[in-house]
Amino acid sequence: MALLDLFVVALMPVLKVLLITALGSFLAISQVDILGEEARKHLNNIVFFVFNPALVFSYLAKSITYESMASLWFMPCNILLTFILGSALGWMLIRFSQAPDHLQGLVLGCCAAGNLGNMPLIIIPAVCREKGSPFGDPESCNTHGMAYASLSMAIGAIYMWSYVYNIMRLFSTKIKKFLRMIQTNINPRTLFAPSTIGAIVGFIVGTTPPLRKATIGDSAPLHVVQDSASFLGDAAIPAVTLLLGANLLRGLRGSSIHPPVVIGILAVRYIALPLLGMVIVREAVYLGLVQSDPLYQFVLLLQFALPPAMNIGTMTQLFRAGEAECSVILLWAYVLAAVSLTLWSAFFMWLVS
């Protein structure tokens, strides 16, 4: 498949995200005001407490079994490496750019957490459906690709809402208040966001044969539970993408964030991490840690090249810290993603095919 054809295949999913994002921005302008500040706040809470947990639970319960974990065990490690390396690079960026204290959690979050949710779920099926895809039969590619994307999303959500969520919560809280809270009242429930709980429940259902048999499948007696969760979860991706577009409108109005911070985040996500990812995945293949499936390798590589997670914006709204600055960062990140993600996707497809 020619490199230009691969470029076109990779561009289509990115354009879908950008179109929905543009719609969200349009709905948020003052003349329309459908996604005004109050509406965004309420929709954000619905996404956080209902849609995201349902999405994570439904996909994880369907895609995770003991057999799949045995064959795909490297993916959780690979995603963990993206968070660890991103955090390390983000901390270096904070030291060199001298980012303000109230933005340090935002910088770490944007460097550590890629959009492991809707981007793979959009990109992989679209790549499989494109004529001349390097991954073979479209049906087989789509079946395996959705399993990979679902696991990627679910594992990413666990790291996102247990690690990044608490980092940003910590940095958005005054240190004295945080220490006093730790000393006087340690509440383990604050460590677990709703999406983390959804992931845990989904993992239990998926890996426990009696629960899986009772819940998963059209003939399962409790399949209505899974169907309802899936129905709710389907609303998460468009809702979060619309919210992203509405929040990006604030980025167009500017903020006090220093340009070196934005440039540094873009360099981490679109240059440093993809290059490190190529080294890690190729070495894992060489050592026999990763199966020879080209589609699986493509997904592993893609996890290093994604733009910052859209739920970073959700977190800044929840904590009321760095909302305007986050809008600027996400604005530039997703504008540049149209080029960067397309180029990296095309290159990765050429590399594994």
- Poorly predicted regions: 182-187
Averaged pLDDT: 82
Percent of residues in beta strands: under 5%
- The end-to-end distance, rounded to whole angstroms, is 9 Å
- What sort of overall outline do the alpha carbons produce when their principal axes are compared? globular
- How many helices does DSSP assign? 16
Oligomer: single chain
Radius of gyration: 20 Å
Question: H/E series, N to C?
Answer: HHHHHHHHHHHHHHHH
What does the main sheet amount to? none
| Class derived from helix and strand content | mainly alpha
Number of E-state strands: 0
Helix share bin: over 70%
Report on this model:
With 353 residues, the chain is mostly helical. 77% of the residues lie in helices and 0% in strands. The chain has 16 helices and no strands. The longest helix has 34 residues, at 138-171. The protein is globular and about 50 Å long.
